[in-house]
Amino acid sequence: MKRLIRINLISILALMLVGCDANSDEVLQQQAEQIISAYPNASVEVKDGVLTLKGNFDTSKDKAEALQKLNKIKDTQTVKDEAASLEDLIKDTSISPEDLQKVIDLAKDFPSIQVEVVDGKLTLTGKASSTQDKIIRRSLPTLDIDYNYTVQ
Q: Residues in domain BON (predicted)?
């Protein structure tokens, strides 16, 4: 009987710990989103205590500031940086700052699309509907861009 009680207690504790992890991620997500809300083109994903910063920032300073704030959130395991800044994109590609700004402004209307530089070429990644794909391609017909997003 004592053994059965111990097994039940261990099972209950294990379930509580698993539940706490899910709650922890939800709490981390809320705290991270509050920080990131100051940056309209950025987002953050949380899984198992790991925060992943995505999207675009106007300046490297803004991006660094966001990363610093995210790293200060209690119970965060680590913060992954998958975001870009306009300054970095300009340095990493041959596209003009004006054309790059057009792409970033367009991407603001499609939060599931990220602007990146892959092998020196401006690349759009993420997910888009077929309607969004048409709008994006019509809006940027003359630019040398890789459309590397999934159309759903």
A: 24-82, 106-134
